[in-house]
Amino acid sequence: MPALVLLGAQWGDEGKGKATDLLGGSVDYVVRYQGGNNAGHTVVVGDQKYALHLLPSGILSPTCVPVIGNGVVVDPSVLLSELSGLNERGVDTSKLLISGNAHIITPYNVTVDKVTERFLGKRKIGTTGRGIGPTYADKINRVGIRVQDLYDESILTQKVEASLGAKNQMLTKLYNRRAIATEQVVEELLGYAEKLAPYVADTVLVLNQALEENKVVLFEGGQGTLLDIDHGTYPFVTSSNPTAGGACTGSGVGPTKISRVIGILKAYTTRVGAGPFPTELFDEDGAALRRIGGERGVTTGRDRRCGWFDAVIARYATRVNGLTDFFLTKLDVLTGWEQIPVCVAYEIDGKRVEELPYSQTDFHHAKPIYETLPGWSEDITKAKSFADLPKNAQNYVKALEEMSGAPISAIGVGPGRDETIEINSFL
Ligand code: IMP
Fold this sequence. Notes:
Layout: E1 3-8, H1 16-23, E2 29-32, E3 41-45, E4 48-52, E5 65-68, E6 73-74, H2 76-88, E7 97-99, E8 103-104, H3 107-120, H4 132-140, H5 153-174, H6 182-196, E9 200-201, H7 203-212, E10 217-220, H8 244-249, E11 258-266, E12 269-271, H9 284-293, E13 305-307, E14 309-310, H10 311-321, E15 325-329, E16 339-348, E17 351-353, H11 360-365, E18 367-374, H12 391-404, E19 408-412, E20 420-422
Parallel strand pairs: 1-10, 1-11, 2-5, 2-10, 5-7, 6-8, 7-9, 11-15, 14-16, 15-19
Antiparallel strand pairs: 3-4, 12-13, 16-17, 16-18, 19-20
Helix pairs in contact: 3-4, 5-6
Residues 11-13, 38-40, 125-128, 130, 132-133, 222-223, 227, 236, 238-239, 272-273 line the site of inosinic acid.
């Protein structure tokens, strides 16, 4: 059976939680492969709304094993409070597996995230302040702390000491902060060890064995394609690889096992944090998209920047991820506009450009070239099939599909679990 990847095709917050949940019943494992508690998924089950940050959304499906892969960065205190919050609401979390190779977000990584952002001033990235970047930096610098280190006090102490050496110099001399004591960090981390122990596993082995047994494994990307450290709008990106390749490195499952890569695509565009955004709207339309779409960050509570659909970005997402399908979300938010502009290309320094420029300078100069499509005013939230959609909504979807380079196989027409039109099955 297949391994599928679900990932954000834009700047994140496309509504992945809903898509994962839709598949939940037929999926055996849901795996997060990168990022940490910078992510935010809202999943609606019945009349209950769940905001998940670190846990895979499969945690809400009783038949599914949720997995935190080696590519994820884990803040143990956030993880434990997210688990106990779910337990209090009657959700069974006992099946969760956490890779022993996943890196730990230590308290000093969070401190470094905050002080470096402050130091960058107006050049700041607008991070979520959760310690994500500094933890991945420690991983790449080979001074990171992994989940397995919690079970060897001597190794843990040596590693924390090594990692803190340079950071304390930086904190005290550059940022005028107090030094952080090794013992204090070690004590806090050891305090999590026992509570996390039942979940820690060799997830590479588990997942590969599951695939050999024909189980369905779903990889759930956090953030989105344009926030990818390699393929996104660097430096205004997150510090991991949400793109499809990240599913392999972040889980230990080879690319030959992946049969489907589904890009979640919002019917318009949003972005949180700083960085270029060609179709961003600063007018009443932008405010209306934010209001109607409820575009406020699940993790940070920040208002999302909003703009029209950008087909250049969608085509780019198809290319860098090898997308086989799109899941178009939040189509209902566009109900009521008489005309809906869609960006089909950019004008960069007087030239028409069809594809995303690799040059940061060019992208900062990109001005959207719009085509305007007729809107619809009928309520579409009860539509069960493509044919139930008003003609203009059908045409909007068809136009997006044509411009974006992969079939739109599902459409979200409302936040609820059943407010989805399935066109082609993902399984
Ligand atoms: P970091 O991931 O906290 O380092 O933040 C880096 C950039 O990614 C900032 O612009 C954040 O706003 C953005 N970001 C991180 N996680 C998400 C997400 O789940 N959705 C949307 N933007 C995100």
